[in-house]
Amino acid sequence: MSAQVIDPNVVQGPLAVNERIKGQSKNLRGTISADLDDQITGGFTSDNFQLIRFHGMYQQDDRDIRNERAKQKLEPLHNVMLRARMPGGIITPKQWLAIDKFAEDHSSYGSIRLTTRQTFQFHGVLKPNIKLMHQTLNSIGIDSIATAGDVNRNVLCTSNPIESTLHQQAYQWAIKISEHLLPKTRAYAEIWLDGEKVEDTGDNIDVEPILGNNYLPRKFKTTVVIPPDNDIDVHANDLNFVAISDGENLIGFNVLVGGGLAMTFGDNSTYPRRADDFGFIELKDTLAFAEAVVTTQRDWGNRVNRKNAKTKYTLDRVGIDTFKAEVERRTGIAFAASRPFEFTTRGDRIGWVEGIDGKQHLTLFIENGRIKDNNLAPLKTGVKKIAEIHQGDFRMTANQNLIVAGVATEDKAAIEKIAIAHGLIDDTQSAQRQNSMACVAFPTCPLAMAEAERFLPEYVTRLEGLLSKHNISDEHIIFRVTGCPNGCGRAMLAEIGLVGRGPDKYNVYLGGNIAGTRVPKLYKENLTSNSILSLLDELIGQWVAERQPQECFGDFVIRAGIIAEVKNSARDFHG
Ligand code: SRM
Ligand code: SF4
Predict the structure, then answer these.
(1) Number of CB atoms found within 10 A of residue 336's CB
(2) How far is residue 23's CA from residue 146's CA, in Å, rounded to a whole number?
(3) Residue at 257 is within a domain
(4) Given phi > 0 = left and psi -120 to 50 = alpha, else beta, which region is 262?
(5) Which residues are catalytically annotated?
(6) Which of 74, 298, 301, 525 gives 20 to 30 Å between its CA and that of 132?
(7) Which ligand is nearest to the CA of 497?
(8) Rounded to the nearest whole angstrom, what is the distance from the C-alpha of residue 85 to the centroid of ligand 2?
């Protein structure tokens, strides 16, 4: 009998529980269908709680009323959040009208939530409406496959529609990559769309040539980005294709691998990390490289400890050169030297711009991505009215905003009128507000430790007050808040990032930059929002007094020695 060869790049030890769940799931089917028929509970039981994620749903409950229900001896009001798959974030007006109606009729919060990954979420859908939700989406050509779980998630693409030829080409690649890396299991169609049942022949019913039957060790995120815009924040992602053009057409990509932003408090083996540049590839090799990076991570990613399972940790564990060489071995193609590129901007350009095709594009600032008719403005009705007359498409941005894209010049006035009447265009919004962002957090996120989305608007008003006090009302600092260290609002790429620790308690991170190419570092821990404001008052005062021309806040705090620069996360982030 030959001895088993142990691959030194694979972490040995008892596998994480999720590995058993995935392995025994019959390619993500579990017993979800049976659970769906169980009217005794509003939730999903045992393994299915995890498995529905691979179908784009999370079980949640309203945390605002959780204790009250517990006192009444009621189970939490279980419901699901659904996240749609929307590579590049493009959606037609017809699709928008259908999702608007579903949110209105069947989601407890009556809102559509644009996310930091260019798609939308429904919150608060009760069990009896879940199938209807998938069937409604299917009828308009949308699904939610692989928007959560240990798979390649929604593929992002720079939203800027101005360079329309290049954008069109890049967008097509985002779709191709998304399709190529999708799970091949027919479980989604079978369970939600009443597709034909496949015969149960054992643990693995379908073949997963790329992801494997245990799927990936952890979530995996991919982007296609067009420099100099880094609107999709490449360094939050495992795999990035940086568009290289000859001025007009796409000729290839630089491939950046190993970004990610999450960490766990008290566990220094976890940290936010920038992606590394592996080199240039030709367009024709794009899918082969996407597949090779994914399969290398599939085979070498840590399946023992989920906290160290993402690609960023695999790279630091095996070494960048080893990982890169393996990708080259799997494709049979060597990376060429990286082509020069630079990121200079990140935020969305709010307001109208004219594309090179002469079409008009209106970017609407949607605070925290929450589209809802609220006391301040009937935003949801406004977008619906625009969708009723709009002939182009909508583009969801990775900064939680919405672009009304491809407006013919003759339709501009009508769309603008609706947008103004419904609070979707508001000239009083400051640059600071437009460059601030928060994750969802309470009441729906089960992992939230502090408020984020509900905290941000009022806090930005106070921050605006500070900028005004220091006579820089027209300027802004990239400011982001997340309700816990998972980093969904990308605070770990902000100039000032607040990370929730507990009710009204946040850690303060400083030192990210405008282009999103630097991770910030912990400055102060566990402060109340009031004390953070006093701190920021001092720091902003110092910045205004001592900064060099054009020096942004994040660069200043490093040059002034207020915070050390994070050059290599594994070494510097906790050091
Ligand atoms: Fe996230 C988990 C919301 C972007 C890192 N994220 C969650 C969950 C599903 C909580 C849960 O596991 O039960 C949150 C649901 C809240 C709710 O009620 O809606 C949640 N994440 C979001 C969204 C909606 C935030 C937003 O305000 O827009 C974003 C949805 C994106 C999408 O459409 O797919 C969102 N999440 C991100 C990002 C930013 C990004 O990708 O650009 C990150 C950091 C980048 C990264 O992955 O490193 C992020 N979310 C996480 C993590 C930490 C993963 C890790 O590496 O450890 C978790 C927790 C987990 O996976 O265990 C998480
Ligand atoms: Fe929830 Fe934390 Fe993500 Fe915010 S950062 S949405 S609190 S998991």
Answers:
(1) 12
(2) 17
(3) yes
(4) beta
(5) 83, 153, 219, 221, 439, 445, 484, 488
(6) 74
(7) 2
(8) 19
372 vs 402: CA distance, rounded Å:
13
Cα separation, 103 vs 97, whole angstroms:
10
Same-domain check for residues 399 and 445: no
Whether residue 114 lies inside any domain: the answer is no
Looking at 291, 325, 346, the residue that finishes a domain is: 346
| 373, two tokens | 């008719």
Distance from residue 445's CA to the centre of ligand 2 (Å): 6
Q: What is the pLDDT along the chain (575 residues), one digit of tens a residue?
A: 567 788 999 999 999 999 999 999 999 999 999 999 998 888 998 899 999 999 999 999 999 999 999 999 999 999 999 999 999 999 999 999 999 999 999 999 999 999 999 999 999 999 999 999 999 999 999 999 999 999 999 999 999 767 778 999 999 999 999 999 999 999 999 999 988 776 666 667 899 999 999 999 999 999 999 999 999 999 999 999 999 999 889 999 999 999 999 999 999 999 999 999 999 999 999 999 999 999 999 999 999 999 999 999 999 999 999 999 999 999 999 999 999 999 999 989 999 999 888 899 999 999 999 999 998 899 999 999 999 999 999 999 999 999 999 999 999 999 999 999 999 999 999 999 999 999 999 999 999 999 999 999 999 999 999 999 999 999 999 999 999 999 999 999 999 999 999 999 999 999 999 999 999 999 999 999 999 999 999 999 999 999 999 999 999 999 999 999 999 999 999 98
Domain that holds residue 378: 351-424
Ligand 1 atom nearest to 310, measured from its CA: 56
Q: Looking at 424, 452, 471, which one is the last position of a domain?
A: 424
Q: Phi and psi of 429, rounded to 5°?
A: -70, 130
Tokens encoding 41: 């509970």
pTM of the model: 0.97
3-state SS, residue 554? helix
Do residues 300 and 392 share a domain?
no
Residue 347 near residue 399 (C-beta atoms within 8 A): yes
Q: Residue 512 maps to which CATH number?
A: 3.30.413.10
Q: Which of 59, 155, 488, 493 to mutate to test the pocket of ligand 1 (most atoms within 8 A of CB)?
A: 488
Ligand 1 atom 62: the closest Cα is on which residue? 486
Among protein residues, the one with the nearest Cα to ligand 1's atom 14 is 445
Helix (H) or strand (E) holding 120: strand 120-125
Tell whether 198 and 244 lie within a shared domain: yes
Ligand 2 binding residues, C-beta < 6 A: 439-441, 445, 447-448, 452, 482-484, 486-488
Expressed in angstroms and rounded, the spacing between residue 451 Cα and the centre of ligand 2 is: 9
Ligand 1: centre distance to CA 538 (Å): 32
If asked whether residues 319 and 225 sit together in one domain, one would say yes
Q: Which atom of ligand 2 is nearest to the CA of 440?
A: 6
Extract the runs of DSSP E, i.e. beta strands, from 248-312.
250-257, 276-282
